[in-house]
User: What shape does this take?
Amino acid sequence: MLIIELLSTVFRESFSQRQTPREPEPTMAMEVTESVEAYRDAGAPNGPMAGVYLFSVARASQALHGCRRVVDLGCGPARFLAQVALLNPEIEFLGVDLSDAMLASAAEHLTALGIRNVKLQKGDITDLSFLTSKSFDGVMSTLALHHLPTMKHLRLCFQEVHRILADDGALYLFDLGRPKSLKTILAMAYIHEERQAHAFSVDSERSWRAAFLPEDFRTLAAEALPGRDLECLSTWISPLMMMLKSRDRALDPEKIGKLKAARKNLSSFCRSDLDQLRFFFKRNGLQNDLF
Ligand SMILES: C[S@@+](CC[C@H](N)C(=O)[O-])C[C@H]1O[C@@H](n2cnc3c(N)ncnc32)[C@H](O)[C@@H]1O
Assistant: This one.
């Protein structure tokens, strides 16, 4: 059954002439308690996000290595940010989010882990006027940009990134990409329904419906982030996940060792999520896999 579903997904995504229209999220900031808690819990060790997070921790660290000040746009409950901050203690991070509930969850988590190299600030990632121009040498954002209601908002966000980022600064943007077919969205959102909160599955469906396309990232990067050496990559067959990032920098062996140990410690389910991301990005040209 799973094989048939898999083959029909590959067929739909490879040959469909149509593209699912974008349906923006109902709100930008995530404030509804059920969604905030479901998302927070999904980021727990061996929760549904664990494999995706570890993949992204490695890729963000490779892109941002050598930075001194990095802002995380739409940091949410900081489950991802905390992992990046722990692996890169020499970097000072600022997490920005519009949601009070998310920021409260983030503050609690960072305190519980004793993390000192992260500060938090409430703010809108389409208007970062509270941050000085060129004041960061790194910007990252994971799984947040699809919350922006329109291309106009995404353009504003990219323009702000360009403004606050030093000329030779590093960038790592990672988000969902919108599949061609609604059936693919439903299959992906509910495939692990039995091992995750229903609210998380519903949130995943909404997120994929609201996601932008790799072409959107490429167009706006050329327009709003001129002169920066960036690459835009997505997963093979369907752009379920995509990234816009600076060229990788070499990580030291100690960090690579920690990443490999973290992969070994994942449950087989989460390790399989991580390995599928590695495989599907590599097929579309992503290099320098550290695992
Ligand atoms: C799905 S969460 C991702 C959190 C985290 N980056 C991660 O990878 O787990 C998306 C976050 O973006 C925030 N967000 C959405 N629109 C925003 C905006 N315009 N400004 C700031 N934060 C925003 C939401 O409140 C939410 O916390």
Summary: The chain has eleven helices and seven strands. The chain has a mean pLDDT of 95. The first helix runs from residue 2 to 15. The domain at 22-282 is CATH 3.40.50.150 (Rossmann fold).
